[in-house]
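HUMAN: I'm a chemist; might I ask for a sequence paired with its structure tokens?

ASSISTANT:
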Amino acid sequence: MISSVDRHTITTSDGVTLAVSSAGDGDAIAFVHEFSGDLRSWAPQFADFQAGYRCIAFNARGYPPSDVPTSLSAYSQERAADDVAETLRALGVGKAHLVGLSMGGFAVLHTAIRHPALVASLVVAGCGYGAKPSEQDAYHAAMNREAGHAEEIGMRAYAEEMGAARYAKLLRAKDERAWKLFVDELAEHSVGGMARTLRGVLARRPSLWHLEEQLSKMSCPVLLVVGDEDTPCLEPNLFLKSVLPDCALCVMPRTGHLPNLEEPARFNAIIGRFIASVTDGGWERVRKSFT
């Protein structure tokens, strides 16, 4: 669990209340969770980073105790990015290092496109499911089917299915206790909120390849992190590496889709070194040495 935190609520410009946790002082790091997680998924990162940074995490709309809007129109990739920006502004943060995993990785990329002045740097982890143009139609159809399936079987059964899926198997192999907590916390989610997230965000988000022009203009430092066993994300990360102007790629060995939970110490060391190098100017010095 995250301990020694301040808990807040903020209200977005379209009237949705989001649950927010923050801890520590210093430069802000905002953590944005993946589809099957919530702000509690970042407990290992809060524990490490709150001594030197102001750590912020929030539950996306549709994830209690944040509001669960009943209208599908309240859910979109653009809205997810705006929720990141509006959370930072509501907390008085002028600029933050953004760390996003999977669905959260897409969200922070879109935040950097839509709200670049708020972004000190990006860590984009496990990003890429369904991102290739050739996969878009099949992926979007699959996400709509997944939403109906979740609604049909209910949240507990759906959580157990996701826990047994390939992308969570490495977490279970490495840390049974962390895997069980992952499943139990997932079972507490709103099946309606997750279904509308699937239909409104995952089933509608654009291909990364279709964002090439916007991505090629991003000026902030970016660290891509992907597990070598997270096969669907490998090619999208190579694409992002080729397009983003100020970007490095880290491939974590024997790691799947949940690197922050599978290998928390290693993940924290990787992103901590990146953020420190951005802050102390080392990142820029190295970049200039080969440009």
In short: The CA atoms of residues 162 and 183 lie 8 Å apart. The mean pLDDT is 96. DSSP finds 13 helices and eight strands in the chain.
